[in-house]
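dumping this here before i forget
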Amino acid sequence: MHDEENIESSGLSHQTRATLLKIVDVIVVVAGVAFAVAALPYKVQELVMLSGVSPNIVQWSYPVALACCIPLVIAGVQAWLIFSAIGRDEAFTAANARRLNIVAAVALAEGIIAAVLAIALYVLYGVLSAGFALLFAAGAVFAILANALSHLTLKAAAIKDENDLTV
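structure:
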């Protein structure tokens, strides 16, 4: 494809758009992991000091923080693959629809992890966590949106394949 044909109405080529999206993807994943590893243990320490919860809970904060990062990293890898496909002008494909389904599943998993942690904190220590409740809600919303985008991408891929056969 010629560069003139590869430029969209925004003025960005597919490759440029993909590169920018990948940069944002890396920033979000690195920032998310750094925040989880730094903030979760800090919040647990704060919880221990403010509520008199057993200090033994602090030892579990780092493994839990790392476990919370796994879905984020998986979603980041899937996003990278989608952005790579966009760079090749292959946005509407069944492969991208599957990748979006994976993103939906890991977003839901992240929400479930947060819900389980919130319930565990309440049952074991009588502490309500607005942060985990918010993470649960965000995970659910992202799961719904990614699933809807997956469906739309698969439908668009089918229409594109049909049109390619017609031409």
